[in-house]
Each structure stands twice: as structure tokens, then as C-alpha cells.
């Protein structure tokens, strides 16, 4: 056990050299690398934190936006619903209006058709009644009825109101002949009776011309100059026609048409 | 049988002897520097790190933490000195498993050189930290009467450092040598394994004690008591 001081000195130098070398090749690079890594990790952590905060902010804003969207969605839905309601009401109104128009047109058309039908019916019914009446009268117009007709004419002539009589008298004084028209030919006695009655009423000897007119079913028409007086069963027929029209109108508005027809027929026959 | 590598002269030139101590010291230095250079030349800053770099980082971090535990502050200031002491002694002792190698720490000259380095480093670090006056005041604490004892303590602990390391390493070598002559199979291997453990522990003790001395001299308050405590610890070893 001895100490070689030269070796000691050499070892001191060696140790110091080793300290310098290790400082250069070990401690400094390693500590620097670790420090850099730590800084890097810190930086990354900070970045991650910032990114997370950003993401959280983003998430919060998205959440907010979503809520706003929900709200606006409600608004849009309700306005859309209102619009739809309005549109529906409008369409309903239009359809109702259109239906009204169509109904009116249909009613008008119906009324026209009814009118046409009624007039046709009227015409036909009138014609039929006239025909029937004509036939009946033609068949049963014997002397007795002609006599009754002439008698009635004479009575009516006698009970003529003063105005009419004055007009007839005035016409008779100017005209030369009076024309008497009947549905059927009159017997000579009947003609005489009428002529006499005329002469009585008008107090003149006017000539009487007897003519036949098929349209005069059961009546007598007296024409002197421009003045005409008529007594005819045709007015009964006119009244019948008017009542028939009334019955048809009532029938088209509801009620029992058959009874009305019966009533009309009864009235017509009376 | 050569007990000390100092006695193993490899080359002689004009009275200057190149002993095995010097040569093996250079070898240890070469291993350390080349190994560190090989790893640190490809250092990575990223998260992907090579295993060798991880090993070096673990070693450096552990040494720094140990220094920090001594409570002297700023471990980077002491890291090169303390770290190199530990790495040099540990490498010297661990290379014992290489056949034909003799640890330079088995030479009293080497351990004395290292102890002298500590002896010089303690006042240097202390003066650098507290100033010359501050350092000198540690010798007259708690009373000026303690000055001679403090000086003796300073010298004796240095000697103790050198002798402790030398004795442990040398004894390991000697025991292996004796055992080889008595029981040449198996037992020397066990003793060598024990020697590796002892060598590592000695490296740790040497470095920690050096740091304790430096720290106790650098502390402002109660440095005297701290120093006494360390002295008693030394005597215990």
C-alpha cells in the first residue's frame, strides 16, 4: 500500500478531463434534450388545452345555435301552419263560391227548363183542354146551347155598362155593318134574336153580318167599326190557364201536385 | 499476485512508468465517453426515444434527483462533478467481470486522487456559493475553539474517503485471488458477483458523501452541526 504521487497527479488530470468530456457528451446533451422534450410536451399540453377550450366553446356555440334553430323551427312551423290554415280557408271560400255559382247556374238552368217545360205543358194542356172542350162543345152544341148562348149574349148586351154602350152606339152610327162572329153556325131564329137585340141596344137599323170563327169556342164577338165586344167561354179557359200556371208554380216549390191538378180541373169544369 | 495495479508496469520510458492504473483509467474513460457519444449523437427530442437514450436519461435524472435530495439547490451545478465521480467509480468496479482487467479504483493513488478532487471541490463550490468569508466562517462554528477540529475533520474525511474505496475494491480483488488458490470453482464467481454489488455501493457512497460534504459546506445555517453529523457518520463507516 503506497501512493505514487505522479499517478495521483495523472489521475487527477484524467478525472478532470473525464468531467469535461462527460459534461460535453453526456450531461449537457441529455439535460438539453429532456428540457426540450419537456418544453415540447408543455407546449403540446397547452395546445391541447387551448384546442379543448376551443372545442368546448365551439360545442357551446353549436348548442346555442341548435337551441336557436329549435326556436326558429317552432316559429317557422307555426307560421307555416297559419299560412296553411289561411290557404285552406281561402280555398274553402273559393270552392264554396264556385259551388254557389254552380248551384246558381244550375238553379237558373233548372228554372229555365222548368219554365220551358211549364210553358210547353201549358201550351199542350191548354191545347188539350181547348180540344176537349171544343170537341165536347162541338158534339153537344145543339140548338139549346146555341139558344142559351144567344140569350146570354142578348142579356149581356142589354146590361152593358153605359161607356161601352156609348162607344158601340157611336161606332154603329158611323159603320154600315156590325160583324158577329161565333164558333158554330147560328140558326136563323138565333140570328134574328141577336139582330133584334142589337137594334134595341144600339137603337139603329144596322146590318148584321154573321161569320163563323173556329177560335171562338163558345162565345160571340161583336165588332162594329173599330170597337169590339166579346162574350166567350174562352175567358174561362184563360182563367183555367192562369190557375194551371199558379198550380204548377206551387207544385215546383213543394206540396202535392196531384191535388192541385184536381182542384184546377174542378175549377176548370165549373 | 499483484494486489495493486500500480505495481503492474506496462511500459517504461526514461524513468516514467505507464502503469496499469493509468491504462485502465483511460480504458474506463474511453468506454464512458464513446458510449455516451454514441448515444447522445442521435438524441431525440420527440416522444419516440431509443432504449439507450432512456437508460442515460434515467441515470442522469437519478443522479440529479439524488443531488437535489441533499438540499443544496441547483443540482445542475454539481451534476458534472458528482455524476462523473459516480459513473467513473461504478464503471471501474463493474468492469471487474472482464478477465484480465484490474480496477483503477483498487489503486490507492486513484482513490487518493479522487479524494483530493473532493477536498478541493468542497471549498471551491462553497466559495462560489457563499463567498470566501462565508466559507472560512464555517471553520469557526459553533465557536472559534472548534477551528482545529474542523481542519482535522476536513483532512481526515478526505483520507477516509480514499481509504474506504481503496480498501473495499482491493479487498474484493484480494479475496477473489485467495479463493482462486483455495477453491478454484464456483466460489470466485459468487464472490465476484458480490464484488460487483460492493463496487456499485461504493460508487454510490463515494458520490453521496462528496455531495454531502459540498452541501454541508455550502449551507448558511447550522452548517457546523451538519458537518459534525457528517463526521460522526464517516467514523461509523
TrEMBL record, chain A:
Keyword Isomerase recorded: no
Record membrane topology: Single-pass membrane protein
Regions that span the bilayer: 6-27
Predominant localisation class: membrane
Pfam family, one: ATP-synt_B
CDD domains assigned: ATP-synt_Fo_b
GO cellular component, one term: proton-transporting ATP synthase complex
GO terms, molecular function: proton-transporting ATP synthase activity, rotational mechanism; proton-transporting ATPase activity, rotational mechanism
Region (Disordered): 249-270
Basic and acidic residues bias spans: 258-270
Source superkingdom: Bacteria
Alphabetized UniProt keyword annotations: ATP synthesis, Cell membrane, CF(0), Coiled coil, Hydrogen ion transport, Ion transport, Membrane, Transmembrane, Transmembrane helix, Transport
Known role: Component of the F(0) channel, it forms part of the peripheral stalk, linking F(1) to F(0). The b'-subunit is a diverged and duplicated form of b found in plants and photosynthetic bacteria. F(1)F(0) ATP synthase produces ATP from ADP in the presence of a proton or sodium gradient. F-type ATPases consist of two structural domains, F(1) containing the extramembraneous catalytic core and F(0) containing the membrane proton channel, linked together by a central stalk and a peripheral stalk. During catalysis, ATP synthesis in the catalytic domain of F(1) is coupled via a rotary mechanism of the central stalk subunits to proton translocation.
Oligomeric and partner information: F-type ATPases have 2 components, F(1) - the catalytic core - and F(0) - the membrane proton channel. F(1) has five subunits: alpha(3), beta(3), gamma(1), delta(1), epsilon(1). F(0) has three main subunits: a(1), b(2) and c(10-14). The alpha and beta chains form an alternating ring which encloses part of the gamma chain. F(1) is attached to F(0) by a central stalk formed by the gamma and epsilon chains, while a peripheral stalk is formed by the delta and b chains.
Alphabetical list of HAMAP family matching this protein: ATP_synth_b_bprime
Listed name of the protein: ATP synthase subunit b
Gene, per the UniProt record: atpF
Automatic annotation (TrEMBL), chain B:
Location, primary (coarse class): membrane
Keyword Lipoprotein carried by entry: no
Membrane-crossing residue ranges in chain numbering: 20-40, 78-101, 107-127, 165-187, 193-215
Any one Gene Ontology cellular component term annotated for this protein: plasma membrane
Gene Ontology biological-process annotations: proton motive force-driven plasma membrane ATP synthesis
CDD domains referenced in this protein's UniProt entry, alphabetically: ATP-synt_Fo_a_6
SUPFAM superfamilies for the chain: F1F0 ATP synthase subunit A
Compartment(s) of residence: Cell membrane; Membrane
GO MF annotations, alphabetized: proton-transporting ATP synthase activity, rotational mechanism
HAMAP family: ATP_synth_a_bact (MF_01393)
Family indicated by similarity: Belongs to the ATPase A chain family.
NCBIfam families per record: altF1_A, ATP_synt_6_or_A, PRK05815.2-3
Role noted for this protein: Key component of the proton channel; it plays a direct role in the translocation of protons across the membrane.
Protein name: ATP synthase subunit a
Organism: Ruegeria marina
Gene name for this UniProt entry: atpB
Amino acid at each position: 500500500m503506497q501512493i505514487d504521487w505522479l499517478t495521483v497527479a495523472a489521475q487527477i488530470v484524467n478525472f478532470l478531463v473525464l468531467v469535461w468530456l462527460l459534461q460535453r457528451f453526456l450531461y449537457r446533451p441529455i439535460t438539453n434534450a429532456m428540457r426540450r422534450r419537456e418544453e415540447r410536451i408543455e407546449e403540446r399540453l397547452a395546445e391541447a388545452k387551448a384546442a379543448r377550450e376551443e372545442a368546448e366553446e365551439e360545442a357551446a356555440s353549436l348548442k346555442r345555435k341548435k337551441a336557436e334553430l329549435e326556436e326558429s323551427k317552432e316559429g317557422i312551423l307555426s307560421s307555416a301552419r297559419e299560412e296553411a290554415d289561411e290557404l285552406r280557408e281561402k280555398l274553402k271560400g273559393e270552392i264554396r263560391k264556385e259551388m254557389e255559382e254552380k248551384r246558381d247556374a244550375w238553379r237558373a238552368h233548372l228554372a229555365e227548363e222548368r219554365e220551358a217545360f211549364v210553358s210547353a205543358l201549358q201550351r199542350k194542356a191548354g191545347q188539350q183542354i181547348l180540344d176537349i172542350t171544343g170537341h165536347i162543345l162541338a158534339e153537344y152544341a145543339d140548338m139549346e146551347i146555341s139558344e142559351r148562348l144567344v140569350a146570354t149574349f142578348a142579356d149581356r148586351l142589354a146590361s152593358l155598362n153605359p161607356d161601352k154602350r156609348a162607344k158601340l152606339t157611336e161606332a154603329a152610327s158611323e159603320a154600315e155593318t156590325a160583324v158577329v162572329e161565333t164558333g158554330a153556325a147560328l140558326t136563323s131564329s138565333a140570328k134574328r134574336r141577336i139582330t133584334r137585340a142589337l137594334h134595341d141596344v144600339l137603337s139603329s137599323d144596322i146590318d148584321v153580318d154573321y161569320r163563323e170563327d173556329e177560335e171562338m169556342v163558345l162565345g160571340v164577338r161583336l165588332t162594329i167599326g173599330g170597337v169590339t165586344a166579346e162574350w166567350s167561354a174562352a175567358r174561362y179557359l184563360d182563367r183555367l190557364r192562369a190557375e194551371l200556371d199558379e198550380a204548377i208554380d206551387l207544385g215546383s216549390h213543394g206540396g202535392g201536385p196531384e191535388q192541385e191538378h184536381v182542384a184546377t180541373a174542378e175549377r176548370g169544369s165549373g | 499476485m499483484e494486489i495493486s495495479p500500480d505495481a503492474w508496469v506496462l511500459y517504461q520510458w526514461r524513468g516514467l512508468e505507464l502503469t496499469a492504473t493509468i491504462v485502465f483509467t483511460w480504458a474506463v474513460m474511453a468506454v464512458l465517453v464513446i458510449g455516451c457519444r454514441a448515444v447522445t449523437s442521435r438524441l431525440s427530442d420527440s416522444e419516440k426515444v431509443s432504449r439507450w437514450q432512456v437508460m442515460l436519461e434515467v441515470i442522469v435524472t437519478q443522479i440529479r434527483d439524488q443531488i437535489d435530495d441533499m438540499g443544496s439547490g441547483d443540482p445542475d451545478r454539481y451534476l458534472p462533478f458528482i455524476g462523473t465521480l459516480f459513473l467513473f467509480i461504478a464503471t471501474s468496479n463493474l468492469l471487474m467481470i472482464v478477465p484480465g482487467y484490474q480496477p483503477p479504483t483498487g489503486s490507492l493513488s486513484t482513490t487518493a486522487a479522487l479524494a483530493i478532487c473532493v477536498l478541493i471541490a468542497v471549498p471551491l463550490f462553497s466559495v462560489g456559493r457563499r463567498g470566501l468569508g462565508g466559507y472560512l466562517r464555517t471553520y469557526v462554528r459553533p465557536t472559534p475553539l472548534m477551528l482545529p477540529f474542523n481542519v482535522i475533520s476536513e483532512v481526515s474525511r478526505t483520507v477516509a474517503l480514499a481509504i474506504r474505496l481503496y480498501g473495499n475494491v482491493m479487498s474484493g480483488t484480494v479475496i477473489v485471488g485467495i479463493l482462486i488458490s483455495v477453491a478454484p470453482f464456483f466460489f470466485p464467481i459468487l464472490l465476484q458477483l458480490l464484488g460487483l454489488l460492493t463496487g456499485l455501493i461504493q460508487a454510490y457512497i463515494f458520490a453521496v458523501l462528496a455531495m454531502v460534504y459540498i452541501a454541508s459546506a455550502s449551507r448558511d445555517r447550522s452548517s457546523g452541526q451538519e458537518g459534525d453529523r457528517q463526521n460522526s457518520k464517516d467514523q461509523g463507516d
